[in-house]
Specification:
single chain; 495 residues; alpha/beta; Urease, subunit C, domain 1; TIM Barrel; binds zinc ion
């Protein structure tokens, strides 16, 4: 932006507007006026100031931007490497390979992940950042997030770091001072990227003593961090202890918490989470691929939002997660009825519910429902515009726009994406990122410059090769066996 007010008119679209009861009404031939980073007017044939950029939305669906409540943006260079892996194989051959990423690799991976999400129509992401091997890694990741233009909660995750791979030797300093000093500085200096990038806290070290866990969470909260997130898959890899019970018993349900997956959650877990207003981030693609179990999306006892989680395993778009959440819920429920020699009289779940999981429920999960997640005057201009007449969308979009997005839309149909009042994708093409003097400083890209997607893709390919070469020099299987012993995984429970 040049300092003058950005004014955009979205002209003559079909606007999807949430009502107070969360139903979505589609308003045909409707304009939206965006001033600066907010929606300032919605109506037909709106008048607009001179100098406004006009985006013709004829034959387009104007939707709230998708909200991804669980992802790991840094992992772009690992795409396709874990396609056949279960959670266990992925953890040691993928997640734990973060030490093979230099800060420069982290910058490109993070930027690639954030832009992949924007391209897919996602405007806000909760980034479970388990790549905190060094302060430089964190600085590069936050700079890349800010440069990308996405709205993000960068959730700083204390991780177990390894001194060597073979033999696998964990660094005993699990909660190093430098990490918490850096987190304190970031928490007190936030937000970054013109207000788009906030600092959250990601935590998975539930094996640590209660007093230590509680004191760290309290400390982080005292620095002004408002969003906390944790993985919870009740199984023989991540453990059988109930994270919701620990959250309750440790007194940690005081502020915004997102529990990712919660597959295998008991009824008691569901009760704890729903009473505390805690959202589960369901990631059906990864949960199905990696042996985590059925998503909770349509169980009905917990509030659910959606996450792409492993953009290195499958598509980054939230529409895919909406679709898969519905399909898996119906498949598992209907199969039980078929096995009982009966036939389902009706399906469970609706496309409208799935749409809300990827929009307004995601906004509630991150505590921003008054600012994002729906289209309304005064809200932030985070908007995803779909082509309504593509071969995929035609006839579906005219019959029911919400169903068309959930059941039919692919990334190809995401025409234009606006985040915080700034157009980031136009007519199906990602726009270059623009790094200005005074932006978040990166050692990878210094000085004011524009970077096209082509240039970023080239840097990503070179970085991917560097990372792949480093991983290729390791005996991954040996490290994996050592990891199973360290994590006390019971081999008799592996099938
Ligand atoms: Zn995850």
């Amino acid at each position: 932006m040049t300092g003058s007010k950005t004014i955009i008119l979205l002209k003559n679209g079909t606007v999807l507007q949430h009502q107070s009861d969360d139903t979505v009404v589609s308003l045909p031939n409707t304009d939206i006026l965006i001033q600066d980073n907010k929606i300032s007017a919605i109506g037909s044939s709106l008048s607009f100031p001179s100098g406004a950029e006009i985006i013709d939305c004829t034959n387009k669906l104007v939707s709230p931007g998708m909200i991804d409540t669980h992802n790991h943006l840094w992992m772009t260079q690992l795409k396709a490497r874990h396609a056949e892996h279960t959670l266990l194989e992925y953890v040691y051959s993928g997640g734990l390979q973060n030490f093979n990423f230099s800060p420069e690799d982290i910058y490109w991976g993070q930027l690639g992940g954030a832009l992949e999400s924007i391209d897919a129509g996602t405007t806000t992401v909760v980034d479970h950042a388990h790549m905190t091997c060094s302060p430089d890694n964190v600085d590069e990741a936050i700079a890349a997030t800010a440069h990308s233009g996405i709205r993000s909660f960068y959730c700083y995750v204390p991780i177990v770091r390894y001194k060597s791979w073979n033999p696998l030797v964990p660094d005993p300093d699990i909660l190093p001072n430098w990490a918490f000093e850096q987190l304190e500085g970031l928490a007190k200096a936030q937000p970054f990227g013109n207000g788009r990038v906030s600092i959250g806290f990601g935590f998975d070290l539930w094996f640590l003593p209660k007093e230590l866990v509680v004191s760290k969470w309290e400390q982080v909260r005292s620095w002004g961090v408002k969003l906390f997130t944790t993985h919870y898959c009740k199984n023989h890899i991540f453990g059988l202890r109930s994270v919701p019970e620990m959250l309750r018993d440790y007194g940690l349900l005081k502020s915004g918490v997102i529990v990712s997956h919660a597959t295998g959650a008991s009824e008691e877990d569901g009760k704890i989470l729903s009473e505390a207003g805690v959202y589960v981030a369901a990631a059906p693609e990864v949960e199905g691929q990696m042996g985590c179990g059925l998503p909770l999306s349509f169980r009905g006892d917990v509030p659910v939002a959606l996450g792409a989680d492993g953009h290195f395993v499958g598509p980054a778009d939230i529409m895919s997660q909406m679709r898969l959440a519905l399909t898996l819920a119906r498949h598992s429920r209907n199969q039980k009825i078929l096995d009982d020699n009966r036939f389902p009289a009706a399906n469970i779940g609706t496309s409208a519910q799935a749409f809300n999981m990827g929009t307004i429920a995601g906004a509630r999960a991150v505590g921003m429902e008054s600012q994002i997640g729906s289209i309304a005057v005064g809200k932030l201009a985070d908007i995803t515009i779909f082509d309504a007449v593509s071969p995929t969308m035609v006839c579906a979009a005219q019959y029911d726009p919400v169903t068309a997005i959930v059941r039919h839309a692919t990334i190809r149909d995401v025409a234009t994406v606006i985040v915080d009042g700034v157009v980031r994708k136009r007519n199906g093409i990602l726009l270059p990122i623009s790094i200005k003097e005074g932006d978040m400083v990166s050692k990878t890209v210094s000085g004011a410059q524009q970077l096209s997607w082509g240039e970023i893709a080239q840097a990503l390919m070179e970085s991917r090769e560097r990372v792949a070469n480093k991983i290729a020099q390791l005996d991954i299987a040996a490290g994996g066996e050592a990891f199973k012993r360290l994590a006390q995984i019971d081999s008799s429970k592996l099938a």
